Write a sequence for this structure.
């Protein structure tokens, strides 16, 4: 799972819960960092905050879809 959110406490709490369920999780605080992380981390699912700084979650979702069209990222 790629988890993108600018609230550090919420992101880390979500990461801990997901990892407790044996999920591999990468966390990014904003859109540009998420795009960089997505290159190295092959996530099946991305959970995005809509109100991100720099690039909102809708724009990030579009960019992730463009870059990972053939992948199974949802």
């Amino acid at each position: 799972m790629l988890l993108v959110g600018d609230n550090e406490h919420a992101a880390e709490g979500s990461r801990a819960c997901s990892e407790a369920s044996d999920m591999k999780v990468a966390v990014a605080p904003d859109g540009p960092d998420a795009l960089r992380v997505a290159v190295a981390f092959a996530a099946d699912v991305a959970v995005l905050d809509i109100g991100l700084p720099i690039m909102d979650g809708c724009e990030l979702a579009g960019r992730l879809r463009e870059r990972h069209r053939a992948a199974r990222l949802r």
Strands lie at 2-4, 26-28, 46-48. The domain at 2-67 is CATH 3.40.50.2300 (Rossmann fold). The longest strand covers residues 2-4. Residues 1 and 24 are 6 Å apart (CA to CA).
